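Q&A log
Question type: sequence-to-structure
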Amino acid sequence: MTSVPPLKRVRTFVLAIFAVSYLFVLLYFLLGGEWQMPGALIVAVTYMFLPLLVSLVLVRFVYREPLRPALRISFGFNRWWIVSWVTPPILALLTFIVSLIEPGVSFDLGMAGMFARFGATLTPQQIATMQTDLARAPYLPLILGLAGGMIAGITVNAIAAFGEEAGWRGYLLRHLLPLGFWRASLIIGTVWGLWHAPLILLGHNYPEHPVAGVFMMTLWTILLTPLLNYITLRARSVIAAAVFHGTLNGTAGLALLYVNGGSDLTVGLTGLAGMIALLLVNLLLWRGIKMHRLSVA
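Response status: OK
Response body:
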């Protein structure tokens, strides 16, 4: 075991993860890759595993420490695993409600907003068929989306999300927590958001506003981090964070399903509506920690 000050370990990780991640995307394009399917999906999924890779190399080969405790990996099930699984769709519902309060945004069972956003990936015949099906069963997409997102959240999505969470809620949280829960959350959220920059600039999450999207994504991850950190600490496992993250990715579309109007900056989980929802959650979290003097160590 190597004795290295926690903040020095944080600096090493941050420098390594940015260098490895940004270089990975650069090399993809230098080797002739294009940002379109299926290449874009392969790059995005691989990108999610880079925090795990950097954490693993530092813990096992640089500091020579046991991997599971160093990254807070535990399969000891408790009620916080359930909380991590059911909270994301609740957050999507809250985001949906906030979206409808915004000017120029309305509720639409015909899903015109979804077709406007993603219709370019469908043929006119596919769109016509989907619209006919919607007329018969307008809430079927909600049911299928919720069921599919919840199942994916504890299976394939959780595996991919673990690639990220091993770095953010495993490695970084362990070394930053001595600074205090909220300060640690601010630092992790900022690093996590800026780490997304190459993908955001390529059109991920904010295809209409990629440059502004980098700042929006960073603000969003700052607001999301306290909740993920809290669940990790309560569950005593980064696996719970992976379940939350995976389920969030799987159910994020529910917040946009029946929303017509707005843009990628204003509606949806990563838009202004989602940030307002997260701000409300953070206020409740702060009040709960303060009132009940809950330990987050």
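Response note: The beta strands are 106-107, 259-260.
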